[in-house]
Amino acid sequence: MFYVLVALADRDRHGYAIIKAVARHTSDKVLLSTGTLYGIIKRLLAEGLIVESARRPAAALDDERRRYYRLTDFGRRVAIAEAERLEEMVAVVRATHLLDEPGTA
């Protein structure tokens, strides 16, 4: 879910563009299926973290069947809070030297 929120942080996207953004942001470590993505979208919509966007690209660049999604202000705050939480966790890991080479901690 967090990766989907991050994919929507910089612009509205349709489903396939979200899948591609998540893959790109994770160097293909997270590959969402359409079924998984639309389950996540359904939950994010229900929780008020995203909404279907009324903004559309120019008609020549658009497919009317696509649904575009965007973060709500609440969704942006949730994504920021989660990013900050993860940042704090990484700081703890670094402080424990867990990621140092074996035998150097």
Characterization of the model:
With 105 residues, the chain is mainly α. Helices cover 51% and strands 9% of the residues. It has a 3-stranded antiparallel beta sheet with strand order 1-3-2. The radius of gyration is 17 Å and the shape is elongated. The relative contact order is 0.16. The model has no long low-confidence stretch (mean pLDDT 91).
Strand order of the largest sheet: 1-3-2
Mass-distribution shape: elongated
Q: Give the strand content.
A: 5-15%
Q: Which spans have pLDDT < 50 for at least 5 consecutive residues?
A: none
Biggest sheet layout: 3 strands, antiparallel
Terminal CA distance reads 34 Å
Radius of gyration: 17 Å
Number of helical elements: 4
Key phrases:
three-stranded antiparallel beta sheet, 9% strand, single chain, 105 residues, mainly alpha, 4 helices
Write a short abstract of this structure.
The chain is mostly helical. The chain has helices spanning 2-7, 15-25, 34-46, 73-96, and strands spanning 13-14, 50-52, 68-71.
Helices and strands in order:
Blueprint (H helix, E strand, L loop, with lengths): L1 H6 L5 E2 H11 L8 H13 L3 E3 L15 E4 L1 H24 L9
Antiparallel strand pairs: 1-3, 2-3
